[in-house]
Amino acid sequence: xxxxxxxxxxxxxxxxxxxxxxxxxxxxxxxxxxxxxxxxxxxxxxxxxxxxxxxxxxxxxxxxxxxxxxxxxxxxxxxxxxxxxxxxxxxxxxxxxxxxxxxxxxxxxxxxxxxxxxxxxxxxxxxxxxxxxxxxxxxxxxxxxxxxxxxxxxxxxxxxxxxxxxxxxxxxxxxxxxxxxxxxxxxxxxxxxxxxxxxxxxxxxxxxxxxxxxxxxxxxxxxxxxxxxxxxxxxxxxxxxxxxxxxxxxxxxxxxxxxxxxxxxxxxxxxxxxxxxxxxxxxxxxxxxxxxxxx
Length: 295
Ligand code: FAD
Ligand code: MG
Description:
- By secondary structure, the chain is of the alpha/beta class.
- The chain has two domains: about 1-110 and about 220-290, FAD/NAD(P)-binding domain (3-Layer(bba) Sandwich), CATH 3.50.50.60; about 115-220, FAD/NAD(P)-binding domain (3-Layer(bba) Sandwich).
- The protein has seven helices and 19 strands.
- Strands 1, 2, 3, 4, 5, 6 and 19 form a seven-stranded mixed sheet that branches.
- Helix 4 links the parallel strand 9 (about 145) and strand 10.
- The radius of gyration is 21 Å and the shape is elongated.
- The two termini are about 25 Å apart.
- The model has no long low-confidence stretch (mean pLDDT about 95).
- It binds flavin-adenine dinucleotide and magnesium ion.
- Flavin-adenine dinucleotide binds near residues 14, 45 and 264.
């Protein structure tokens, strides 16, 4: 059976798109590998009406609501390959092949974290990226920002809104005078000694042996689409401040006709609200492309 749409990635963006298409009674196959980006966090903040909920519960309720639509097929698994052209796409997953007229890549991004011992296991618990998501709960305690490059200056300038901030350059770049002055104006302390490890709740241990205690830490990971499907299909990728994303036009269609992309993998910045909004829009645009194929 040919599906109208295969949605690769059944998290917030993919499900929001699928919901619009299912409500238009379209045949939708969602294939999801189950690795939501926020899977290490126990609470999700900032999504209207769902502030502070468990992000797994948010996804569970959404999936249960989608399952009520008879034209949905859901498959747990990872799409290994995607090929084809408009009206005739194929994806493979665990030995099976599925066909569809349109493809939607809602595959999210991977987070390449700074290589600091003790940091990965605190990601989403004491080490975060987005202050709007996790800053408030630090209760105006001490905050450390770990640089990954010059764009981390902006993160360090913003964080004093949430607590006393120390900026760790960690050998990633050299601060110029103007940026240093701006950080001073914002009351940010700058630390140039490299970090040896993260320890305790959120203690930064420096290579000279000093230990600095924080309530929480922030860092900006390098992001790229979590699996290489867009590149496989020949979709253009574009550079962003954070790494790389799938390029799309206003309708969320990529440079390959019939292949759409939404959510973290295809927009910036990143949050559940923005992924849901982007997905809802992509779903409606894909529906319109099925109704008016030439436009
Ligand atoms: P994702 O949620 O990353 O989902 C992508 C899905 O696609 C995954 O299920 C993945 O397994 C699947 N997939 C990928 N490739 C394939 C493939 N080849 N085949 C099948 N499936 C595939 N935002 C907030 O608004 N509030 C918060 O409090 C918050 N906290 C966060 C905490 C942490 C630690 C992190 C890292 C992020 C947080 N975010 C938060 C951001 C939020 O998680 C993302 O913006 C959101 O998950 C993006 O949704 P998405 O659907 O685009 O991608
Ligand atoms: Mg998704």
